[in-house]
Amino acid sequence: MTINTRVDEAGFRPASRISTIGVSEILQIGARAAAMKRDGKPVIVLGAGEPDFETPDHVKQAAWGAMQRGDTRYTALDGTPALKEAIRAKFARENQLSYDIDEITVATGAKQILFNAMMATVDRDDEVIIPTPYWTSYSDIVAICGGKPVLVACDAANGFRLQAEQLEAAITPRTRWLMLNSPSNPSGAAYNADNYRPILDVLLRHPHVWLMVDDMYEHIVYDGFRFVTPVQLEPRLGERTLTVNGVSKAYAMTGWRIGYAGGPKALIKAMAVVQSQSTSCPSSISQAAAEAALNGPQDFLAVRTESFRRRRDLVVSGLNAIDGLDCRVPEGAFYTFSGCGGVLGRLTPDGRKIETDSDFCAYLLDEAHVAVVPGSAFGLSPFFRISYACAETDLVEALRRIREACGKLV
């Protein structure tokens, strides 16, 4: 759904900067699924990128303690000193990265971090390289800020990972940023040290290109995969890299809305200017909770990741047992990104032809009452994303329904 820039009956004319920007297809599918549920249909929603675990009790208690102390007022613009110190310690402890306090920023979710960075650095027609499949907001944020998203398709044969030769070919004098996400939403693909090295070598040869790395899913990796972040491997890129993270996924704190990043002092200062004219400081209560999450016990992370791994294996094996579907095993996050090219061209029971991954996902919602997201929403077709951050019983039933629906295609 895109916005019509013509003047309507009430005289409203939206800005041209959002003329090609639509409401997230994930949200649209979720809204349609919710409406079907209200009508009594037994819809299983596998679209939301949200852990089904509770926020840890010690984090909730920290928020309550902050309220009891009266910490309910404005804080420092881009993060309390206590939270920034917790972030500094986290980066040092887990990523071997060293940042000063004024090289750290906190915002209302990682999405605002990305927006602040793009708004602070991207001029009209500056180019931002985005490997696909990508999280849906990446390209729209770039476009809203006046930049040009340069989408580079990364296929399943290469594990949905950007290759060095692709990056080299995409760089021009107008390139401002490369955006990387590992583990990835939507594919679950992740870069190890060997995968990153050729890409970092390309960046070293192009000093005008900055790197934005989204590490939001760093704690959700499987099968002994060793997470690394680029500056950890190549410190020379530290002066032009923004390392983005948050507490939403690992700590099941999506609604608390806290994202953070470490990067060069000048960039962090420019991002603060942007934030000062939008949301100002993040919630004081949420910042206290995030501080407790980063400083507190971490042992539960492995337990939750093991639960996700079991669900991953269930979904991957279930999808690969269905004729026409092909699903690689993701290294991390809690998504599968399955190919559905094998069902394209087939007919539904009422004679409709499945021509695209969007058609297939619409068919699954109508026929099987299972909501998934088409790969087109993430810039790569023909695929579809399943979020397995839900009950195993729901996953088993959803797979049964998908198998039955696919069996009806001719």
Pick out its properties.
410 residues, alpha/beta, Aspartate Aminotransferase, domain 1, Aspartate Aminotransferase, domain 2, 2 domains, seven-stranded mixed beta sheet
Provide structural commentary:
It is a single chain. With about 400 residues, the protein is of the alpha/beta class. The protein has 2 domains: about 15-55 and about 300-405, Alpha-Beta Complex (Aspartate Aminotransferase, domain 1), CATH 3.90.1150.10; about 75-295, 3-Layer(aba) Sandwich (Aspartate Aminotransferase, domain 2). Helices cover about 40% and strands about 15% of the residues. It contains 13 helices and 13 strands. The chain has helices at about 25-40, 55-70, 80-95, 110-120, 135-145, 165-170, 195-205, 230-235, 265-275, 285-295, 300-320, 355-370, 390-405; strands at about 45, 105, 125-130, 150-155, 175-180, 210-215, 240-245, 260, 325, 335-340, 370, 375, 385. The strands form 3 sheets. A 7-stranded mixed sheet has the order 2-8-7-6-5-3-4, with helices on both faces. A 4-stranded antiparallel sheet has the order 9-10-13-12. A two-stranded parallel sheet has the order 1-11. Strand 12 (about 375) and strand 13 form a beta hairpin. Helix 2 (about 55-70) crosses helix 10 and helix 11 packs parallel to helix 13 (about 390-405). It is globular. The mean pLDDT is about 95.
